């Protein structure tokens, strides 16, 4: 009988990677638990660069559960394997070892920055029970048509947001925080706002885009244009006027129209209609500034490609026609 060939390192890695993917729901739920328990904040409160043990963290939690230190340590150890935390092994004077955790350069995005911005609202949105539930209907939506969100709840994401105040707040906070993170980087490299006197942000949500633009270019008068149910919750922002309306009917006239991650929410026909409305609204010598994620024709495994394609699949079940696009 022929002996089996020994498994190669590549085969072993492939097998383990497949198992990891098959159990990959552990990561978002572990992150959500860490956020809900304020583990990142508790670690950060120990001071810049400091590391603390699970027992020290649990001492600041409202619990008497004797198993809590072990549970927290296992969650933190897991997050360390995804580079969200740093970990050192510490030996005390009695020779006992324990793990000590600090917030990594990735993990700091789960902490509010000086402006109160983080990726936590995005996590809260993706972990909303409705968004979790609709994944169970993606197979049926693929074979029979429609959206998995509609199959689960009888309406698409935007319809649900318009009716559910809590979901609307979760959605708006996620978009606002994501916008702040991205726009800070955009404004570091894009110079197209120099010399402008007016910018109309179409689909601008709570006005975060314009808040950042106007703060850097105070000569600009900003008009934040979105649905009335959205702008009614928008905060007062110096230099920004909130205007309610429907972008598919009419867009306010102006010098420059700005849209960030609006087109990816809509199908091709809706995008063409929206762009035509932009052309009607913009002045003769004006322009339309678009920010969208772009995919390459051939998928790759670099972080830009995987993040963009992850967003694309996430859009599959939420809105009809929503998708990330390639240049083609």
From TrEMBL:
UniProt lineage: Eukaryota, Viridiplantae, Streptophyta, Embryophyta, Tracheophyta
The O-methyltransferase C-terminal domain, residue ranges: 135-326
Name of this protein: Caffeate O-methyltransferase 1, O-methyltransferase 1, O-methyltransferase 3
Source species, domain of life: Eukaryota
Keywords: Methyltransferase, S-adenosyl-L-methionine, Transferase
Organism: Hibiscus trionum (Flower of an hour)
GO biological process, one term: methylation
Residue intervals of the O-methyltransferase dimerisation domain: 20-112
An annotated Gene Ontology molecular function: protein dimerization activity
Active site: 264 (proton acceptor)
């Amino acid at each position: 009988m022929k002996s089996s060939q020994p498994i190669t390192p590549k085969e072993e890695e492939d097998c383990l990677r497949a198992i990891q993917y098959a159990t990959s729901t552990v990561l978002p739920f572990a992150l959500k638990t860490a956020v809900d328990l304020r583990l990142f904040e508790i670690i950060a409160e120990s001071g810049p660069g400091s590391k603390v043990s699970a027992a020290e963290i649990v001492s600041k939690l409202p619990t008497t559960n004797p198993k809590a230190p072990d549970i927290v340590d296992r969650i933190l150890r897991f997050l360390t394997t995804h580079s969200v935390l740093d970990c050192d092994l510490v030996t005390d004077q009695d020779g006992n070892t324990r793990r000590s955790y600090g917030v990594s350069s990735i993990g700091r995005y789960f902490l509010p920055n000086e402006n109160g911005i983080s990726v936590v609202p995005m996590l809260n949105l993706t972990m909303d029970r409705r968004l979790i539930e609709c994944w169970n209907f993606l197979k049926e939506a693929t074979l029979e048509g429609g959206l998995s969100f509609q199959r689960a709840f009888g309406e698409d994401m935007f319809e649900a947001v318009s009716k559910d105040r809590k979901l609307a707040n979760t959605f708006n906070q996620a978009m606002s925080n994501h916008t702040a993170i991205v726009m800070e980087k955009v404004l570091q490299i894009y110079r197209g706002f120099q010399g402008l006197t007016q910018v109309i942000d179409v689909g601008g949500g709570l006005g975060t885009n314009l808040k950042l633009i106007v703060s850097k270019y105070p000569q600009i008068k900003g008009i934040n244009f979105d649905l009335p149910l959205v702008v009614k919750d928008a905060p007062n922002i110096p230099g920004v006027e909130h205007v309610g309306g429907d972008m598919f009917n009419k867009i306010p006239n102006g010098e420059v129209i700005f849209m960030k991650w609006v087109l990816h929410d809509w199908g091709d026909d809706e995008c063409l209609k929206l762009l035509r409305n932009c052309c009607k609204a913009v002045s003769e010598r004006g322009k339309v500034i678009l920010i969208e994620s772009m995919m390459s024709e051939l998928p790759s495994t670099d972080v830009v490609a995987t993040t963009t394609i992850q967003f694309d699949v996430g859009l599959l079940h939420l809105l009809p026609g929503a998708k990330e696009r390639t240049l083609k």
